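Input record (one chain):
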Amino acid sequence: MSRRVGIYPGTFDPITNGHTDIIRRALHVVDRLVIGVARNDGKGPLFSTDERVAIVREEIPFLGEPDAAERIEVRPFSSLLMSFAESVEAGVIIRGLRAVSDFEYEFQMAGMNARLNPRIETVFLMASDRFQFISSRFVKEIGMLGGDVSHFVSPRVTTRLVERFNGAQVQQRRRRG
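The corresponding structure, as predicted from the sequence alone:
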């Protein structure tokens, strides 16, 4: 029996409750899920690739899925998504959609990916209504300005964000000092 392998790519800077909801639901669609953490230094990530991989791995035991640890693998990648998908033998790319604006971009990307490898399908999962408004970018902005991000990310990610922003504030004070 062949196993359906899916890949859920993203920068996960940081991983949000919306991401973990998509991961949980993707486990109902595929037998094995590879979470591909994109090296995207051009976006100026808050966390390094290695940190983001570690943070995503830390979230897996808390998904509430009994076999998640056996079915999920977290790996960094810097290649073309379709090359990475082929390298992990994925037949499905999982993408989360929050709004119509997401759909337009993702629709174009799915079309390009289908041209590169028509054997790999893209499956869109709509964000649950309670997570539709969450984005990593907004979480970082709120955290950077001292706001409470605990409604949008796990307690572990909240701690990491607070540590990162407090460390940045200390460094700024030292430079001004």
